[in-house]
Amino acid sequence: MSWLQNLYETYENNFDMVGRFEKNSEGEEFTLLPLYHTNLIAHIEIVVNEQGEFVWADVVKKEDSYTVSPCTEDSQSRTRKATPHPLHDGIKYVAGDFVDYGGEEKFKEANELYLNNFKEMILHPNCHPKIKSIYQYIKKKTIIKDLYEHGKIKIDDNNQLIKKWSKNGDKPELYKVASDISKAVVRFDVHLEGEMTDKVWKDKDVFDSYIEYYSSRLDGEDLCYVTLIE
């Protein structure tokens, strides 16, 4: 048995653990990742309502920062190329106003790709409603503005994002967990009035919705050498 096939069978034998969160000895959460997902370490969490309106934002504590995020083949293997993940990702990818506040120009194109990929995702027949709500928010391109207005980031006198904190006085919480704000990772959640639901990055229904969507995009003629048995 090849090592790849061994890995595949190990995953299949533990499939019931996919998306079930546990804690390690340091109190940090982890899980066996669903197909077409990766894990990110989030720094800031933005919560929107069902209509896609900004509700609040919180700095994420280290022990709660593990975040399961949809990914694509290109985004998972990105190096220098600015290829965004489809949902949660770095602020420079998800914030449509990042360039307006001093971000690198190349991330304007990256954000357009992020939005286009997001739009394809919500057009899938079984797209989860939470994903649609998040899209209604991110397409407004107000993430930097909203985080500033709610005291999570700082803007200088030239209307430029202060990426690194070098001033005297109390350092804002986000700057304590992300030394360079341009590299901070944003995750999203949806607040449904009067309902208790799983966080988006812990919601198996959201995972399954993305798996169905991304599976539909893959070329059916691709050959899997892991499961191929002669």
TrEMBL record:
<dbReference type="InterPro" id="IPR010144">
    <property type="entry name" value="CRISPR-assoc_prot_Csd1-typ"/>
</dbReference>
<protein>
    <submittedName>
        <fullName>Type I-C CRISPR-associated protein Cas8c/Csd1</fullName>
    </submittedName>
</protein>
<dbReference type="Pfam" id="PF09709">
    <property type="entry name" value="Cas_Csd1"/>
</dbReference>
